[in-house]
Amino acid sequence: MNTSILRGIAVSANEGTPDAKRWVMPIILESFGLAAAFKAFDSFDAGKPWKTYCGYAALGILLMIGGVLWAVFRKRLLAWWPWRQLRIARAELAAVQEKELVALPLPSQARLVKPQHNVQCAGFKFLVDPPLDVAGLYFQNVPIPGKLIGKFEYPRLRVVYYDNSTGQEIADMCPLQWHGSEYRLSEITAAGSYAEIAVFLMGANVWRIFEEDESSDAFKLNHKEIPAGEYRIIAKLSGSYSLHIPPVEGILTLGKDGIALFKPIKGVL
């Protein structure tokens, strides 16, 4: 007989309801015992040698006695059942490992608390850089005397532009270009960096706002032309590891002559 079938039947003794599973093996033993007894009678009726039907009869008697004994001592035998003991041991081991894992202290590097950044919007600056005029918001990781300051890496500035007279949204640009950076800015340092919130093209006599095209592997800019006028802007700066600073709000005035002014409302030193 295939041993995998026997093992599957034996393992099934550990499954089911607590009362029903205790009767699985007695029923199996009694069934095989009756089958052996029937085989002994069939062999005797067929006139086979006495050793044959006596062997079947003895096997059937042993199996039926085993079934009766299992039924009588089923509770104690179930507690000694090897696969049941193995399953209990595995469950206990898993519980101990989980408890130890929760209580395991983190490495010293993970417990190290690094200083926070002190990036702030330090103001507005109008930059003349022919053939361009640039309106820029200046962000700086402001030094604190006697204290350490953390990094603010991979900054991304999102600016939403609203018509100041009607309140209508004009543009939502992200991330804006950083002045003087040929590629994406890697960090805002104590020296500071300027984000270009509007650029005046002297030759074309138009205002444009630029954003980096993050879908392109190469450095590429998208732009939108906006007319001269007065805009209320909301600028939100974020960085790696979910870093961010409070939003900057103000009134940006773009003149037809290429001159830009900014009146801060909040979020500026």
Task: Give a structural overview.
The chain has helices at 3-11, 24-45, 50-72, 74-80, 82-103, 108-111; strands at residues 119-129, 132-141, 156-163, 169-173, 193-201, 206-212, 221-226, 229-238, 248-254, 260-266. By secondary structure, it is α+β, with helices and mostly antiparallel strands. It folds into two domains: 3-104, no CATH class; 119-266, Immunoglobulin-like, CATH 2.60.40. Strands 1-2-5-6-7 form a five-stranded antiparallel beta sheet, with no helix packed on it. It has a five-stranded antiparallel beta sheet with strand order 4-3-8-9-10, with no helix packed on it. It is rod-shaped.
The quaternary organization reads as: single chain
Helix/strand/pairing category? alpha+beta
CATH topology of the largest domain: Immunoglobulin-like
- Contiguous runs where pLDDT drops below 50 for at least 5 residues: 1-18
How would the global form be characterised? rod-shaped
Strand content: 25-35%
Spatial ordering of strands, largest sheet: 1-2-5-6-7
Name the CATH architecture of the largest domain: Sandwich
Count of extended strands: 10
Main sheet properties: 5 strands, antiparallel
Q: What is the mean predicted local confidence, pLDDT?
A: 81
Radius of gyration: 41 Å
Fraction of helical residues: 25-40%
Order of helices and strands: HHHHHHEEEEEEEEEE
Number of self-contained structural domains = 2
N-to-C terminal Cα separation, in Å? 86 Å
Number of helices: 6
